[in-house]
Amino acid sequence: MAHAALPSALEQSGPIRVEHDRQRRQFSVRLNGCHDRAVLLYEYVGKRIVDLQHTEVPDAYRGRGIAKHLAKAALDFVVEEDLKAHLTCWYIQKYVKENPLPQYLERLQP
Fold it and tell me: Which family does it belong to (predicted)?
């Protein structure tokens, strides 16, 4: 007889899906159905410049690599849209240091 997996076990093994809401200028990952969310917030600070401002993952979900998925999605968006990025968020600064891909580095604003 199969046992139902606990939500936390399910989410660790399931794929993390990042959603991009351009209107609200945020990337998010739904956690535990749709009640909890991890988010990365950004703002346009110029015509082609975005400020990646803040990443937040609820305490119960930290340490699972969720913020990495948000950071990658945001930086890939910057690359795909050919934008420049200002990194206010300390986590995204750390992510770029750990993943110094040329396509990310060449789009950073001081």
Answer: Belongs to the NATD1 family.
DSSP 77-110: HHHHTT-EEEE-SHHHHHHHHHS--HHHHTTB--
Give the integer Cα–Cα distance in Å for 11 and 31: 8
- 43: its two tokens: 């703002």
- Domain at 92, CATH number: 3.40.630.30
Give the predicted TM-score (pTM) of the model.
Answer: 0.85
Tally of residues, the chain: 110
Q: Does residue 81 lie within any of the structural domains?
A: yes
Question: pLDDT tens digits, residue range 10-64?
Answer: 344 468 899 999 999 999 999 976 678 999 999 999 999 999 999 999 999 999 9
Provide the 8-state DSSP code for 14: S
Amino acid of residue 58: P
